[in-house]
What we know:
Blueprint: H1 3-10, H2 14-17, E1 19-20, H3 31-41, E2 45-49, E3 57-62, H4 63-72, H5 82-85, E4 87-88, H6 99-109, E5 113-117, E6 123-128, H7 129-140
Antiparallel strand pairs: 1-6, 2-3, 3-4, 5-6
Amino acid sequence: MGEDRLQKFSKIKVSEIMIKDPLSITPDGKISATELLMLRKKIGGLPVVKDQKNNQLIGIITQRDIRLARFAMSLESPNTTVKDLMTSEPFVVKEDEILRNVLELMFEKNIQRLPVVNDNNQLIGLIVQNQILKKLFDYMK
């Protein structure tokens, strides 16, 4: 990949690559249903919003969170909810952020997905590693 193309790639805005209006879950959702949704949709994590009406981001839950919790506690309880396992106040980005900064944050914090929020902390998108790799592949063609 030429230096110019690599430079151009690093300046892509989040808005060009994010998944718009991603699936999300509320904190009171059951872990069993959440895990099933993630498996069926083949996704590794879901943003957690206060309620589906205003989309206020309050956390994120991943399949990894659920797997790790299996070692620490019994998830067989029908009372285990998303809020019991979610990461509160996750790292987020804005839609005008450039890809270089997003990648830096993802590598530094060892995270695979970043919610995209507006100025009111409402969920508007999601950045995932696969989307970044797909865009990189497009640039390589």
